Amino acid sequence: MLLLPLTHPFTTAKLVSLQATVVLLLTLLIKSRLLRLKMGFLGSLLGLALLVSFAATTGLLGLITAGSLAWGFSQRRSAGA
Q1: Which has the closest alpha carbon to 69: 10, 18, 19?
Q2: How far is C-alpha 80 from the geometric centre of its chain's CA atoms?
Q3: What is the spatial distance between Cα 6 and Cα 72, in angstroms, rounded to a whole number?
Q4: Is residue 31 scored above 70 in pLDDT?
Q5: Rounded distance, CA 40 to CA 27, Å?
Q6: Is the pTM of the predicted complex or chain greater than 0.85?
Q7: What is the rounded distance in angstroms from the CA atom of residue 76 to the CA atom of residue 35?
Q8: Using the 8-state DSSP alphabet, how is residue 81 labeled?
Q9: Cβ distance 64 to 2 under 8 Å?
Q10: FRET pair for 34, CA 20 to 30 Å: which of 1, 43, 66, 75?
C-alpha cells in the first residue's frame, strides 16, 4: 500500500479515492476472468472472497478519507482561531 502524505488532507482524500477506484476495477477484472474461466463452485467461492475483501478495503479507505478530512477541517479551524 502506498504511504499517503498527511500534509494536505484533500490531496490525501483524492489519493485514497483513486486507490479505491483502482482496487474496484482490479477486483471486478479478476472476478470476471475467474467466472469466465471457471463457472464452478470454486470460481464462485473465489469471486465471493474477492468481493468481501473489496468491501473491507473500501470501508477502510473510506474511514481513512473521513479521518483525513476531519483532521484537515480541525487544522483549518485551529489555524483560523
Answers
A1: 10
A2: 32
A3: 9
A4: yes
A5: 19
A6: no
A7: 48
A8: -
A9: no
A10: 1
